[in-house]
Amino acid sequence: MPEPGPEEPDGLGRRLREIYARLEGAFGPQSWWPGETAFEVMVGAVLTQNTAWTNVEKAVRRLKEEGLLNPCALDRLRPEDLAERLRPAGYYNLKAGRLKNLVRLIMERAAGDEHRLLEEPAEVLRAALLEVKGVGPETADSILLYAAGRPVFVIDAYTRRILVRHGLAGGREGYEDLQALFLDHLPRDARLYNEYHALLVHLGKLYCRRRRPLCDACPLADTAPRPKLDTTS
């Protein structure tokens, strides 16, 4: 874990660091985001919406095998042909449209060069991504963190559930409010945020499940009094 900033962490900062240390000790490095190129990461960020990563991998592999995993090739591909190739990822017609929208941004703003797009200032890039139909804060921040290497923290359903169950959030906070918990109390470090988010996702999948969570076996079991579980989270 990176060294603390110039100021000593407050109580919440220490709690977040303790959680990170527990998860890192239990699970080890997660090596996220799985992807050989920045564009592959961007595509994965769109396709992973409402589906398991194993399904995303099948769709990405098909695009890769057909030489279509680049902005120019996807821009030329008809929406219906793209949708057919995205079928393993579920909601394939919807995701084809969203992916086309993202590709259009790359083509119009960066002449088809995703690296040029990702080099834009973080605030500018995030605003541009959020203008793309079908790209919300979680997807935009996943692209910023994992494809562009910017120090932003991704908030997803797993993270929200874990924060609520461990008394760090009440459950009604907005995306930016939960994101601020990490940005305001941890060093601004992309590698740290990358590993922390990946570890929380791993914890959510294995232990802090929506229904029938495995609290007794959880690496965080003794870090705080166990809260009342909200199985609707």
Main beta sheet: strand number and arrangement? none
Secondary-structure element order, N to C: HHHHHHHHHHHH
Anisotropy-based shape? globular
Query: So, the CATH homologous superfamily of the largest domain?
Result: Hypothetical protein, domain 2
Structure characterization notes:
- The protein has helices at 11-27, 38-47, 53-65, 71-76, 79-85, 92-110, 114-118, 122-130, 137-147, 157-165, 175-183, 190-206.
- It contains twelve helices and no strands.
- It folds into two domains: 1-29 and 155-233, Endonuclease Iii, domain 2; 38-147, Endonuclease III, domain 1 (Orthogonal Bundle), CATH 1.10.340.
- By secondary structure, the protein is mostly helical.
- It is 57% helix and 0% strand.
- The longest helix has 19 residues, at 92-110.
Tell me briefly what this model is.
This protein has helices spanning 11-27, 38-47, 53-65, 71-76, 79-85, 92-110, 114-118, 122-130, 137-147, 157-165, 175-183, 190-206.
Notable features of this structure?
disordered C terminus; mainly alpha; 233 residues; globular; Endonuclease Iii, domain 2; disordered N terminus; Endonuclease III, domain 1; single chain
Helices and strands, with pairings:
Layout: H1 11-27, H2 38-47, H3 53-65, H4 71-76, H5 79-85, H6 92-110, H7 114-118, H8 122-130, H9 137-147, H10 157-165, H11 175-183, H12 190-206
